[in-house]
Structure prediction request, 447 residues.
Amino acid sequence: MSSSWSPPSWRELTAAQQPDWPDSAALDRALKELSTYPPLVFAGEARALTGSLAEVAAGQAFLVQAGDCAESFDTFSADTIRDKLRVILQMAVVLTYSSGVPVVKVGRIAGQFAKPRSSPFERVGDLDLPSFRGHMVNDSAPTADARVADPQRLVTAYHQAASTLNLLRAFTKGGFADLGRVHAWNREFVASSAQGRRYEAIADGIERALRFMAACGIDLQSEHQLHEVDFYTSHEALILGYEEALTRRDSLTGDWYDCSAHMLWIGDRTRQLDGAHVGFLSGVRNPLGCKLGPTATPDEVVALCEALNPERVPGRLTLISRMGASAVEEKLPPLLRAVRESGHPVVWACDPMHGNTFTSAGGRKTRHFDDVIAEIAGFFAAHRAEGTWPGGVHIELTGDEVTECLGGAEEILDAHLDHRYETMCDPRLNARQSIDLAFRVAELLRG
Ligand code: PEP
Ligand code: CO
Prediction:
């Protein structure tokens, strides 16, 4: 952090992807209100996550970061939150067993309400409408009214994030995350399809491990680690006014934390070195992520490490590559090499979603499960070749049985996409595809 940093100092820099708020007085009022609200997360929790991510950076843990592309104000319910958490916990159990190391669990949840867009306008029929930028900003309905940026949405986003976090805290500490229970859900998945049965050996192994612990005299009922999990929140820190309004000075250390989530990331479209997003996040102490698409150069990536983590704190910075299945083996190794040579301690995670989006024959924005797996396989291969640790995966998923991505355990075809295509933004893996993915990654980790 430079000595001239303060929460509003990003305002002197160029901020990409900010909405055009038509009523600036209303925006000021909303931000002022937010700045008086309680923090959503505590600095100590963000520090604990940095500590866990430091283990990932050291090759002694694995990261699963997953959740919605964009959370919705409309489909907000206890069930959707529970089902999303359930899938992430199921994935984590499979990966813990297969990797033999702790899995750090971070949701794209409780704040993932803002979207960067490739164009500020969208053509709908013969109308040019402002693009949908996430429910924190406007609504996705294709009308001029719905697309007006409304500052009151910033306040609604805060409240929805607060209730989501409240439920997550209850679920993760109140018995829902019980290992035996999560394993039983995985058993159900394995038993219920021919594709699932392929993973019987892994599921059997987990069961044997549980029996082994019990046989050794470990009382599985009384070990709180088997009934509770640490679960962290994250989102793309896109709308900087919102992030600034939730930034607080930690009373213990005097450091600044963005208390809107435990971890914040910078998108591929807002990672300009001299831009406001890098400038703002350089000054808060939360663990950070930065997406890296195929245009990222080795020099740029090392410069981002310097800007975001000049003190080289392990766990502070996670680099999330999203190259696309066809580009990962060419584009990723030079970045791995440059960062390794610079000596920066980073977590490397693979986002196999955003580089593999295409429009299906039926006109739906989709991704194929096989491309997603292929990018992860390329990511693992690149790390193996460079001697670096493939630290984790970053996935867009939902706990609902939507039909947005092709392929996977149930072989979703183009003709099925219309059945339940519900995303407001990018296509997400459904629950079964997500668990299928975890088992595939497990195979890659063991291979
Ligand atoms: C996202 O994570 O939803 C996203 C927009 O990613 P990226 O910045 O990598 O395009
Ligand atoms: Co997305």
